[in-house]
Amino acid sequence: MNQKTEVDARGLTCPKPVIQTKKAMDQLTSGIVTTIVDNDTARENVIKYAKSQNFRYEVKQADGFYYIDIYKTEVMFDAEIMPQPKPKLSEIVILVGKNTFGEGDETLGEVLIKGYFYTLTELEPYPKSILFVNSGVQLTVEGSPVLEHLRLLESTGVEILSCGTCLDYYKIKEKLAVGGVGNMYAIVETMHKAKNTIRI
Questions:
Q1: Helix (H, G, I), strand (E, B), or coil: what is residue 74?
Q2: Minimal CA–CA distance to 45: which of 14, 90, 70, 76?
Q3: Do residues 13 and 45 make contact, with C-beta atoms less than 8 angstroms apart?
Q4: Are 54 and 26 in contact (CB under 8 A)?
Q5: What digits encode the pLDDT tens for the residues 13-42?
Q6: Range list of H helices, 27-155
């Protein structure tokens, strides 16, 4: 049976319109997801997502908003025969060297780091390990703006490791709220075993 789902992404900043669209499409067996956005950037990103999945799409504009219809054909799926797979882990390690994302304005970097880890929870395969060093360890302690996302990743099997020397330097080891404490040997060994290390 064809289903119709609407995703109202008006007022949302990227990558949320794409992530919400993807969630709706993943829950759909066959039918149409209509995503409503209010800016060109969100429209283009949702279209890019549809193209990347080889979904047919149509875009309409009315009252200053964009209505993007994305079509999904029926896929036979029997949960008893083919249960929903667990999240997959890649051979990639992510090294987090600071508590913001990118260079430049710190306030913007704080916003971007939240968006980065939120997006990381929505895309598979997940990294095998996430290593936190220097001020990056501030993201794994109580009060961290990304703590919820890190706990979700850890629950799927992602290794979360914070540099013990760094935690001691910032005097926050007792506030560690996710993952474990590692030394430089463990960090280097994890990086050496990885197929690729991404530094942010």
A1: coil
A2: 14
A3: no
A4: no
A5: 878 899 999 999 999 888 999 999 998 888
A6: 40-52, 106-122, 147-155
Report field, pTM of the whole predicted structure over 0.70 = no
Rg of the chain over Cα atoms, rounded to whole angstroms, equals 20
CA pair distance 139, 40, nearest whole angstrom: 32
- H or E segment to which residue 62 belongs: strand 56-62
Rounded CA-CA distance 78/81 in Å is 5
> What type of residue sits at position 156?
T
34 within 8 A of 67, measured Cβ to Cβ: yes
The residues facing 167 across adjacent strands are none
CA distances 179 to 63, 68, 159, 165, 186, Å, are 48, 40, 7, 15, 14
